[in-house]
Amino acid sequence: MLESVVTSKTRVKLLLKFFLNPQVRAYLRELSNEFNGSSNAVRIELNRLVKARLLNSQHEGRNIYYSANREHSLYPEIHNICKKITGIDYLYNFVSSFGEVTAAYVTGDYARGIDGGIIDLILVGNLDAGQVHDAVSKGEKIIGRRIRTLSLTPDEFVHLKDKLETDALLQVWGKESA
């Protein structure tokens, strides 16, 4: 959908990468490998986004790391567009309909800013499996993506959180979510 407005596929991938999860930082070669594209095409788009001040760049050793510029006036709008395109905004509404959810996290590709087509969702709370299954089935039809859920009690989540990569957790529901 975003491809119809932004004509560069590389730019779309970069926007999704950095604006889905603003904590993500990456450098040129890493992005080129992830996108299976030429480093020159990625470099050109990174330079354009830095020039527009949508991305920040920071030199560390021999690498330049890029990240979303959260201070840019368009940041909230681009962030929301990326969430809508990938269906994460729907997940927020979907999760908020459950009374017993204390937190919900997107993990995997989407948390890393990669539009992989399958959304991995960790739900923390005391949940009814049937209710979750019904809502997920409806949600998949609405957003056109597969949703895989893992339901954990708060104690189970605390125990497993240390084993999960914290940079691969994007909170979509709970006290810290935005």
Annotated CATH homologous superfamily of the largest domain: Beta Polymerase, domain 2
Number of helices: 7
- Rounded to the nearest angstrom, the radius of gyration is 17 Å
- CATH topology of the largest domain, by name, is Beta Polymerase, domain 2
How far is it from the N-terminal to the C-terminal residue, by CA?
A: 23 Å
Class from secondary-structure proportions: alpha+beta
CATH architecture of the largest domain: 2-Layer Sandwich
Spatial shape: elongated
Strand order of the largest sheet: 6-5-4-7
Mean pLDDT: 82
Tally of separate domains: 2
- Helix % is 40-55%
User: Spans of 5+ residues with little confidence (pLDDT < 50)?
Assistant: none
Topology order in helix (H) and strand (E) letters: HEHHEEHHEEHEHE
Number of beta strands = 7
What is the CATH class name of the largest domain? Alpha Beta
Largest sheet: 4 strands, mixed
